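On clarity, I found the account of how folds are encoded harder to follow than it need be. What matters is that the chain and its backbone geometry are given together, residue for residue. I therefore recommend that a typical entry be quoted early in the introduction. An entry of this sort, consisting of the sequence and the corresponding backbone structure tokens, reads as follows:
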Amino acid sequence: MNEDNTIDYYLKTAWQSAANKYNQIASRFGITQVTGYVLINIHKEGTAVSQIANLLGVKTTSLSRILNNLETSGFIYRETNSADKRSVKVFLTDLGNEKREIAKDVVRKFNAYLDERIPSEERVALIKTLKRINQLAVEYNPE
């Protein structure tokens, strides 16, 4: 099998190109693609650390370094649930909200750029196929 003719090869290279572009743009604002993604997914009422970990597809222990960096940078703060000390919610600071809006704007502009260049029927077919690949990946159970 040649690696450049597998579906996962094209998925990986397409995402890597997008992530690299996001990182180039994000660096102009003092953040990274991952930082922007985390900030976008923290809601006004706070977001549980476990929920952020699920969105990123990482374990909560792996997320700890990212959150520590965000806290040190003044983008977030954490609050522990007084009833359940294991439950921690993450909230945005004013600076975090500013960076969140920048990240959202970058995502909107990039998606508008793609929308202008990928015809609607291609986009619909692509999204349908990607959803199907995701479903199949979840269901896949090698013997």
